[in-house]
């Protein structure tokens, strides 16, 4: 299994996941042209993409999906509730490309399970993607760590997970009060500390990689997110079980290098 973020943050999100020569895209919140350029940068051929899965309706996760689906003639997968919110945004998607899903699908040779997160959207989901030998957990856009997140994310081989903000930086920053409340609330975004606490429960001896994603440009920095998570994990029992764990930060505007599990 391989994966890479193509963009990450409130300006747009997209994650490529695949095995062998088959791939899927989780969200498409950047322009289709940028998706294709960023795929080329990590040596993934666009014809390998077999579909786009949408985790929720916010524009930083969907705004390029319609154009990309039409250009590559691939389907878009989303729950019925999310489709009600995104259909007008995506534009002319034919019936063959509109795939309404529940919680479990098989795409690009991998099993994909959706589980709820806690975000201020109609519906919002994380994903557990299982290939032939490895499992990737994806969870961004959640104000709290839900029980569903705990159940599905324990023991994955790799993660792309949200470390959105440093709480002190948020509350001393320039955001208006209502936005600070939104970001830090139960339907907002996970802080660096919240994620680190969750990772102490999720990591297992097989875990190889953690990619910190959806960082706030205003209320976080890559260095702050990485140092907080590393420091909180350093003496945890979970970290001791996975001595070769690598923790990285997803770039905001360009792709992370392709990560291959093995």
UniProtKB/TrEMBL annotation:
SUPFAM superfamilies xrefs: Metallo-hydrolase/oxidoreductase
GO molecular function: hydrolase activity
Coiled coil residues, start to end: none
Keyword annotations from UniProtKB, A to Z: Hydrolase
InterPro entries membership: Metallo-B-lactamas (IPR001279), RibonucZ/Hydroxyglut_hydro (IPR036866), WalJ/YycJ-like (IPR052533)
UniProt name for this protein: MBL fold metallo-hydrolase
Residue ranges annotated for the Metallo-beta-lactamase domain, each copy included: 11-189
Domain of life per record: Bacteria
């Amino acid at each position: 299994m391989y994966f890479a973020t193509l963009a990450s943050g409130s300006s747009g999100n997209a994650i490529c996941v695949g095995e062998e020569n088959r791939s899927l895209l989780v969200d498409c919140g950047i322009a289709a042209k940028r998706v294709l350029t960023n795929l080329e940068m990590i040596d993934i051929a666009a014809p390998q993409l077999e579909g786009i899965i949408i985790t929720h309706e916010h524009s930083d996760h969907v705004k390029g999906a319609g154009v990309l689906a039409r250009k590559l003639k691939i389907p878009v997968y989303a729950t019925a509730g999310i489709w009600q919110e995104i259909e007008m945004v995506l534009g002319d998607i034919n019936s063959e490309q509109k795939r309404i899903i529940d919680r479990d699908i098989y795409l690009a040779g991998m099993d994909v399970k959706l589980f709820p997160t806690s975000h201020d959207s109609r519906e919002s989901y994380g994903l557990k993607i299982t290939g032939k030998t490895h499992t990737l957990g994806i969870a961004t856009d959640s104000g709290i760590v839900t029980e569903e997140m705990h159940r599905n994310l324990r023991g994955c081989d790799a993660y792309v997970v949200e470390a959105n903000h440093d709480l002190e930086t948020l509350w001393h920053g320039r955001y208006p009060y209502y936005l600070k409340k939104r970001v830090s609330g139960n339907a907002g975004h996970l802080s660096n500390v919240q994620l680190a606490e969750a990772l102490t429960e999720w990591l297992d001896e097989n875990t190889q990689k953690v990619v910190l994603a959806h960082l706030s440009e205003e209320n976080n920095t890559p260095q702050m997110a990485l140092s907080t998570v590393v420091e909180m994990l350093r003496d945890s029992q979970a970290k001791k079980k996975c001595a070769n764990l690598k923790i990285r930060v997803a770039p905001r505007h360009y792709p992370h290098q392709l990560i291959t599990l093995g």
